Amino acid sequence: MGELRQDLRFGLSRLKKAPGVTIVAALALGLAIGANSTIFSLLDAMFFRPLPVENPERLVRLYTSSISSPEGRSSFPDYEDYLSGISSFSGLLASGRRGALLRRGDTTETILVEVVSRNYFEVLGTPLSFGTAWGPGPGADEQDLVVISRDLWSRRFGSDPEIVGKPIHLSGENLVVGAVAAPRFRGLDRLIAVEAWIRSDTWARRMNSRSDFERRDSRWLDVWGRLAQDASVDQAQAEASVAAAGLARRYPETNQDRTSLVLAEAAERRRNGLGLTALLMSLAGLALLVCCANIANLLLAQFEARRPEIATRLALGAPRLRIIRQAFTESLLLAAIGGAAGLLLAWRLIDLLPAMMPQTWIRLNLDFTADGRVVAFSVFVALTTTILFGAAPALHAGRVDLMSVLRGQGVLGSEASSKMNLQNVLVAGQIAACVVLLTTSGLFIQSLRRGLELKPGFERKPMLLLSLSPGLAGYDREATRAFYTELRQRLGALPGVETASYAMRAPLSMTGGGASVKAFFDDEGMAIKYNSVGPRYFNVMGTRILRGRDFGSGDGREAPRVALVSATTARRFWPGRDPIGETIRIGDSDRTAHEIVGVVEDVKINSIHEEPQPYLYFPFDQRPRSEATFLIAASVEETALASPVRATLRAVAPDVAVLDLTSQEELMRYALYTERTYAGLASALGTLGLFLAGTGLFGVISYLIGLRTNEIGIRIALGAQSADVLRTFVGRGLWLSSVGVAVGLCACLALTRLLSGFLYGVSPRDPMSFLGAALVVMLTAAFASYLPARRAAAINPVSALRQE
Q1: Which of 187, 204, 248, 488 is the most exposed place for a label (fewest CB within 10 A)?
Q2: SS3 of 569-606
Q3: Domain regions of the chain by residue span
Q4: Does residue 197 have a pLDDT over 90?
Q5: What is the distance between the alpha carbons of residues 582 and 27, in angstroms, rounded to a whole number?
Q6: Which pLDDT tens digit goes with each residue over 514-543?
Q7: Cα–Cα distance for residue pair 56/295, rounded to 1 Å
């Protein structure tokens, strides 16, 4: 321990004597470790941190599987049959997410509600902050209760300690707050936060959705189970399969060819995150390797400058192992400083992560905290980097040739060759890692570009989207129609507005595709998503009508029912025929006939990358909705229209609240959020790697010039031209870079399988990305080699020989 303290004191002294090396190495390490820790925190929150429930390792998912949907949702009747037919579970719950409108005072907002079975909190064993939720079975008090999240309680109710027992206004209904959930509990979804929980019977009765719980083919519920004490996942799977087979026999119309699948929640979550985790941590790890190689080169040069000191210590009897240990201790101190800087940077970046997430009415269930797991990971990375960049310089420090130093000789023979070979390997490794980072960055940028160029079926132009719900203000269907008509006319007359319309939903508006109807193209019906649209909707959106006509003033509520179909719908159900004039029947019981009057181009409904799917359009007057989104095409910046639009709404109907006011550009930005994130992250890591690789090559060429200063002076004295000297050292840098580029490109080819699942519209072997990365690296290498080579070409031969 005494020697260790001595090594630490001496190491700190050496770091103070070389502040330039210390600062550069600490900053590089801080950036690399901070990036790794931040990415780890993000992935930990998404995939690896246990759910805040009792014994989360006993929690499983029960899916109703089909050929088209192996991990499908279940219906409430199926859930009730599972509840009584599987003994391997100590509890089984059902839950499904729905949007609801929370009104408090003059403000209204959309929140995400989880409709749950009575035993939800009992099965999960989740404590409540205060209050009591409903019990597992009907009790004497059948009051309609709601449990609210801690976040909602603090954000909208001012952390009112007397909130329990008070009513809240939810989607036009008054419900009573029964409890406030635990601080970290926001539902069972790893990404999306729930803000309120309502019993299924309450939701069915108060929200007029009994059919959602009575129909066996209405599959919208997630089923979760808790394994019994001695039960395993395999036992639960066997019993669930038997139960599913029984349902298929009893209800062949809805359950034929459907089976059950039981998966452990933790294992499924980690499996789903394995690919993304491998990709992001590999990129961050490559940046860390580039950093380690760069610092190793710095330390090699530093220990070379200290050869006389090390030789003196050896001459005085110091064991070589002691020299190695001292050198490694200095590396450990450097890693400690860099690790502390990295952890501080990670704390700051983790605090910024929520602001970097997409800002929508849907809140994310992600806790970004620099907790003990992040600290432990940072310490592990710092220790690993110590070995990566400290071992080789320490071993070389212990291999100093004592006799050559005492004779006043430089680095000669095999010692010089060995050292330069190691530095060459480190530089080539840096270049290879940099090529992988830049190639990956190029692929993600190409993927983002393809997404931006994609034709979504509507025009991308300045447009405001105003979401309203007159029904919350007490408007009946007739008053709602009149309100929509007047507001559209008033909005269309505003300065800066080209035209305006409204619809049940806007494309890519994060509503799950909207509602669906049962459509009968023949004797068998199928559920198809649809949209109810107002006058001139397709003109406002810029969606082309391929055949037939648009809806007109003659398609009012009393007129014959009409519909427009998407191009995919026409191809699927009328292949090779013109569907104009054909009839489809809509609805489970009445099956009202609708004449097809037009075909419109396919539009991206939920995701910018989705495959075309059948879709229907109806005139808003013939299929009205209480909620709608106004689409306001602008000839000016959207932000300039926000205030006039709000003022117009207040003038027409001051009692109707704005649910959401956003722009089409915001929706498109959210639709491409994943691609933007991947491209931004890979570009940042690639830029860091390129900078470090360039400085590493600069250092190696500078060190090589220092070793050969006498030789350069002699060559110049004998008539060598500056261009010859430049060519020698720039060529050395380009040769090293060429080796690194070749290795890096081979590594990229090996990583194509890992990248393929994260790219859209671009091959993981895209030649432009490969060639672009190689070209950028070679240009950087040429510049990094030219700077020290230019100094070498300007060496005064007399001064060089005099120094020798």
Answers
A1: 248
A2: HHHHHCCCCCCCCCEEEECCCCCEEEEEEEEECCCCCC
A3: 1-60+258-410, 67-76+92-229, 427-448+672-804, 463-671
A4: yes
A5: 70
A6: 677 888 887 777 878 899 999 999 999 999
A7: 43
Strands (E) in 339-481, as ranges, are 463-468
Q: Can you say whether residue 514 is alpha, beta or left, with left for phi > 0 and alpha for psi between -120 and 50 degrees? A: left
Is the four-CA dihedral 768, 770, 771, 773 of positive or negative sign? Answer: positive
Amino acid at 79: Y
Look-up: residue for tokens 């003038």? 651
Does the pLDDT at position 511 exceed 80?
Answer: no
Q: How far from the centroid of its chain's Cα atoms is residue 619's Cα?
A: 37
d(CA 1, CA 14): 20
Q: Rg of the Cα trace of the chain?
A: 34
- Indicate if the alpha-carbon torsion angle 366, 368, 372, 375 is positive or negative: positive
Give the residue carrying structure tokens 């006389």.
308
* Side chain identity at residue 641, one-letter code: L
- By residue count, the chain amounts to 804
Best-predicted range by mean pLDDT (471-475, 520-524, 784-788)? 784-788
Question: How do 222-227 and 59-65 pair as beta strands?
Answer: antiparallel
> What confidence tens digit (pLDDT) does each residue in 138-165 have?
543 556 889 999 999 998 899 998 999 8
Least confident of 407-411, 414-418, 476-480, 607-611: 414-418
Q: Select from 626, 790, 784 the least CA-distant residue to 698.
A: 784
pLDDT tens for 82-132 read 988 788 999 999 999 888 888 887 777 888 899 999 999 999 988 889 888
Residue 4 C-alpha from the chain's centroid: 45
* CB 228, CB 197: distance < 8 Å: no
Q: How many CB atoms lie within 10 A of CB 291?
A: 31
Q: Other C-beta atoms within 10 Å of 639: how many?
A: 11
Residues 75, 217 contacting (CB under 8 angstroms) = yes
Per DSSP, helices labelled H in 624-720 are 638-652, 664-671, 673-707, 709-717
Separation between Cα atoms, residue 234 and residue 243, nearest integer Å = 14
Closest by CA position to 616, among listed 520, 482, 715, 737 = 520
Chain position carrying tokens 């007159």: 470
